[in-house]
C-alpha cells in the first residue's frame, strides 16, 4: 500500500471503527464477579464451623430424679461447663405442679459424665415478676427480707421472702414480723438437710410454716419465698425415712418346731 493512500480503517465510518476497539468490563460488573466468587468460600466456612459442633443433653440432679433439662451445643465438652439453664417447675415435674408455672428453677452445668451427658446442679429459684407484682396491690403492706440460712448438712442458702399484709402495717409491727420470720427460717433450716429444705421451699410448705408462725403477731395475707440462691451443693438423694419406733413392746420369740416321735420331722 502506498504511504500517501488512506487506509481502509480511516475510510470506514466512525461507528464501525469504534465497534472494532476492544472495551473492558465496567467496574460494577467486575465487583459483582468478585463478590460472587467470595460467597461460596464464606458459606463453606460457616457450614464447616457448625459441622464441628455437637449437642449435649443436660440432666438434672438426683433431687429432681435426673430428668432431662434440655440440650446445649458446643464444639468441645469443656465449653458447656458453667452454663446456666432455666426452667419452670411444671416443665420439670409434669402435671403434678401445674399450678406453679410462676416458679422458675435455675441450674448450672458442673461436669460431663462418661456417657457424654452434662450434669447440672440446682443453684436457686425465682418467682416471676408479674406474680410478685400481683401480690402487692394498693393499700397493702409489703415486707421484703433477705437472709442466709445453714441447713443441717452445712449447705448455705440465701433466701429472700416477701410477705403481704391485707392493710398498711405500722413500722413497729413490720419489724416484729421480720424478726419472727428470720427466727423461723433459721430454725427450719437447722432441722432439715438441704434436699428436704429445698423440696419444702419449692412445694410451698415452708411458706405455710411461716404463715402459721407469725399468725400470733398478725395474720398476713400471703408469704412467699420469691428468690433463693444455693451457695453450696445440694446432695443428690433425699435421706431415707427412719422406721417408726414400736410402741407395743418387744416382739414375742419365734416359735420353734418340735418333732413328734415317729413323724420323721427334724427339729
Task: Describe the protein in words.
The chain is of the alpha+beta class. Among the domains are: 50-125, no CATH class; 128-234, Band 7 domain (Tetrahydropterin Synthase, Chain A), CATH 3.30.479.30. Helices cover 33% and strands 24% of the residues. It contains eight helices and nine strands. Strands 1, 2, 3, 4, 5, 6, 7, 8 and 9 form a nine-stranded mixed sheet that branches. Strand 7 (147-150) and strand 8 (156-165) form a beta hairpin. Helix 6 crosses helix 8 (205-213). The radius of gyration is 38 Å and the shape is elongated.
Highlighted features:
9-stranded mixed sheet; Tetrahydropterin Synthase, Chain A; 267 residues; 8 helices; 33% helix; alpha+beta
Regions with little confidence, pLDDT below 50 for 5+ residues: 239-267
Shape call: elongated
Per DSSP, what share of the residues sits in E-state strands of 2 or more residues? 15-25%
* CATH homology superfamily of the domain at 128-234: Band 7 domain
Summarize the structure.
The chain is α+β, with helices and mostly antiparallel strands and 267 residues long. It is 33% helix and 24% strand.
Secondary structure elements and their pairing?
Elements: H1 8-11, H2 14-19, H3 27-51, E1 54-59, E2 68-74, E3 84-88, H4 89-93, E4 103-112, E5 118-127, H5 129-135, E6 141-144, E7 147-150, E8 156-165, H6 171-191, H7 194-203, H8 205-213, E9 222-230
Parallel strand pairs: 1-5
Antiparallel strand pairs: 1-2, 3-4, 4-5, 5-9, 6-8, 7-8, 8-9
Helix pairs in contact: 6-8
